[in-house]
């Protein structure tokens, strides 16, 4: 068994069966990170000592006949905005490096560890998660493993690149306007943004309270499903975490087909800004699923605008005190955006929130007729590091904000979205969003598993 | 938008004063440029007529 290529579920099975030890798996991951991370810059911290101790404990439990969990010995890493007990949570910011260490793990980390996974480090991101590129002013740029001259996407760039480079099989990131899906697409890996409130954000540095989600990255559908199952559950530490019952999905997925699902392609807004290669990728997926129906998500461009206003306003207000006292210690680009966001009139923010309610109701109506919607994740494949503009539909537009063209209108109302990777021969990867109604993660995971089985994703 | 004739630089300076945010010379222009961008984007939402019955949710639920 190749530890480098194996997915998390395969590694955990091998560890539980004694074919390989958790210590060996952890050591191999740490060696891969040591060998490649200088050029990729995925990691900001490597937790080798605690990882080795945790792996030894898992091996002892197995020797004692205990079941260490469904992710036994699986190395994982997290975006550096998740609290790791004993380490300072950076959130990509220089100012935060002076904070005291976290006293306990984020709930998501605790749940993965409880399932036997082994934390090996923290991952690079855009400062305060404000960006789509992971060209971090303080901690450097994360490079795309498919082409080191290109960006990994952001803001969870380290989380996606670490998976794509086979450094670890499982990572966590966060998604406000596309920060899981954009890097997932550009790096060619799965990235799941669950329903808003479905996974606990306790112990996670927030960017925009009413838009933030956390979610996993992985190289297979069964890995991303397993991680989602492990991460679910009510959490008193997070006031927005749902009290809905968990619905474990991995077992159910293998028994269910998608024959009766109503699947449609997102038209209009989601076609206009896409490059020909992105549209072709959507069409290929639609063909593989036998989908011919189109739907229009009304006023998606206004949803994106409203998301922009809410993000700017909420993000700025979270950091107001630091903006007063230490503006010189921000990335200048982040600082100027935050400062401008702090000056937004409340009526604009309220109008954006009212629009959100209206838009949510309109999209709910669509989901009376359709179960899953397909749309490109990003308009183009990974741009070059430092690339400022791109040509779309004959028009030169800025790269940085427009990588979220197709992800923002869906984050805005908290829909569950899985970005599935389209890894193409002799070309950079792209991503396709599978979108469902709130709390219907099972549907998009089922569709992804069928696509994976058909071999159209080629991860 | 109602901001016709608005001097964005003045607005930014006054609001920053109100919020006790110091805008140093080296980044004042960047803040103004960003606020102008936000203003244009906000207009797309602000100009959209919404029924009075649509409330802003105090707790957002999808």
Unreliable residue stretches of chain B: none
Binned strand content of chain A? 15-25%
Question: What is the oligomeric state here?
Answer: heterodimer
* Total helical segments of chain B: 2
> Percent range for helical residues of chain B?
40-55%
**What is the count of β-strands of chain B?**
0
Biggest sheet statistics of chain A: 11 strands, mixed
Q: What integer value in Å does the Rg of chain A equal? A: 21 Å
| Shape summary of chain B | elongated
Uncertain segments of chain A are none
Fraction in helix of chain A: 25-40%
Could you tell me the CATH topology label of chain A: Amidase signature (AS) enzymes
Distance N to C terminus of chain A:
18 Å
Protein model, in words:
Chain B: Pfam families: AtzG-like. Chain B: InterPro entries: AtzG-like. Chain B: It comes from Brasilonema sennae CENA114. Chain B: This is DUF4089 domain-containing protein. Chain A: One of its GO terms (molecular function) is hydrolase activity. The complex is a heterodimer of chains A (459) and B (62). Chain A has one domain: Amidase signature (AS) enzymes, CATH 3.90.1300. Helices cover 39% and strands 16% of the residues of chain A. Chain A contains 17 helices and 17 strands. In chain A, a hairpin with a 7-residue loop joins strand 16 and strand 17. The mean pLDDT of chain A is 95. Chain B is an all-alpha fold and 62 residues long. Chain B is built from two helices and no strands. Chain B starts with 7 loop residues before the first helix and ends in a 16-residue tail after the last helix.
């Amino acid at each position: 068994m190749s530890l480098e290529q194996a997915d998390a579920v395969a590694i955990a099975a091998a560890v539980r069966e004694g074919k390989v030890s958790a210590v060996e798996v952890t050591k191999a991951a740490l060696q891969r990170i040591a060998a490649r991370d200088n050029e990729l810059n995925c990691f900001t911290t490597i937790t080798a000592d605690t990882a080795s101790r945790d792996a030894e404990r898992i091996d002892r439990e197995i020797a004692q006949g205990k079941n260490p969990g469904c992710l036994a010995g699986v190395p994982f890493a997290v975006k550096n905005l998740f609290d790791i007990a004993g380490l300072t949570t950076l959130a990509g910011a220089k100012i935060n490096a002076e904070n005291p260490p976290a006293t306990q793990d984020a709930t998501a980390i605790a749940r993965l560890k409880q399932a036997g996974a082994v934390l090996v480090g923290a991952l690079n991101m855009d400062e305060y998660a404000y960006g789509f590129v992971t060209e971090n002013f303080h901690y450097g740029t994360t490079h795309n493993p498919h082409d080191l001259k290109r960006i990994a996407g952001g803001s969870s760039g380290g989380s996606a690149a670490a998976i794509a480079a086979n450094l670890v099989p499982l990572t966590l990131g966060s998604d406000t306007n596309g920060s899981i899906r954009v890097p997932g697409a550009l790096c060619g890996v799965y990235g799941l943004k669950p329903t808003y409130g479905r996974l606990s954000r306790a112990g996670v540095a927030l960017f925009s309270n009413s838009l933030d989600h956390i979610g996993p990255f992985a190289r297979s559908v069964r890995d991303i499903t397993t991680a989602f199952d492990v991460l679910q559950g009510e959490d008193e530490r997070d006031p927005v975490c749902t009290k809905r019952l968990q619905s474990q999905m991995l077992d159910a997925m293998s028994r269910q087909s998608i024959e009766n699902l109503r699947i449609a392609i997102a038209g209009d807004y989601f076609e206009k800004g896409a490059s020909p290669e992105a549209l072709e990728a959507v069409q290929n997926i639609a063909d593989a699923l036998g989908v011919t129906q189109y739907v229009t998500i009304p006023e998606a461009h206004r949803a994106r605008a409203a998301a922009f206003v809410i993000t700017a306003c909420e993000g700025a207000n979270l950091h107001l005190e630091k903006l007063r006292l230490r503006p010189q210690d921000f990335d200048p680009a982040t600082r100027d955006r935050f400062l401008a966001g702090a000056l937004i009139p409340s009526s604009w923010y309220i109008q954006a929130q009212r629009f959100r309610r209206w838009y949510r109701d309109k999209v709910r109506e669509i989901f009376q007729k359709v179960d899953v919607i397909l749309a490109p994740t990003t308009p183009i494949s990974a741009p070059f590091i430092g690339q400022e503009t791109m040509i779309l539909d004959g028009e030169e537009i800025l790269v940085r904000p427009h990588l979220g063209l197709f992800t923002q209108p869906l984050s805005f109302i908290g829909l569950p979205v899985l970005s599935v990777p389209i890894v193409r021969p002799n070309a950079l990867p792209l991503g396709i969003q599978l979108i469902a109604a709130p709390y219907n993660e099972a549907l998009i995971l089922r569709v992804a598993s069928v696509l994976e089985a058909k071999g159209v994703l080629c991860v | 938008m109602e901001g016709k004739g608005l001097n964005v630089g003045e607005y930014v300076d006054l609001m920053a004063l109100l919020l006790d945010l110091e805008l140093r010379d080296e980044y004042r222009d960047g803040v103004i440029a960003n606020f102008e961008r936000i203003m244009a984007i906000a207009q797309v939402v602000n100009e959209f007529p919404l029924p009075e019955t649509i409330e802003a949710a105090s707790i957002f639920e999808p």
